[in-house]
Amino acid sequence: MHGEEYETGPGGIPTYPKRCAPEGLLTRRQLRTRGLRPNGHDPVAQIRYWRRGWRYAYLYDASKAAPVRPMTPGRWRSVAAMLAARMTCPQCGWLREEFIPPSVGHCTHCTCRAYGCKACDTGAARPEAPDQNPPDQPTRPPMMAA
Description:
Strand order of the largest sheet: 1-2-5-6-3
Number of helices: 3
Order of helices and strands: EEEHEEEEHH
Low-confidence stretches: 122-130
Strand content: 15-25%
Oligomer: single chain
């Protein structure tokens, strides 16, 4: 049954069972491991597999795929700025070494209410500007210094 169409799934595209897709059709992850991207083309088929219910993975034609775009300095700066925004606490303004959980909305140090807590430095003076780090904190990573 290798390479034979299993059925026509949602959207009217051919559906194959797991590990039975024809040569030249790859998932996004398989394209990425080969340094390719779908290049804006729609999927040409899909595979159907069971994982706590039926799931589908789109398949793309490898002959239409293009090389992955390289990371430019501007894109690196953009990614660094996005990561810094996720690690800056909106309450205290400190750049932490952890991501601020959106469910809580502030860093773990702001959660602790004990005055003078040595683990949290809650009772310490706050920096004037939100982009400054306190002296006892490590400096920003070089990736985020820009």
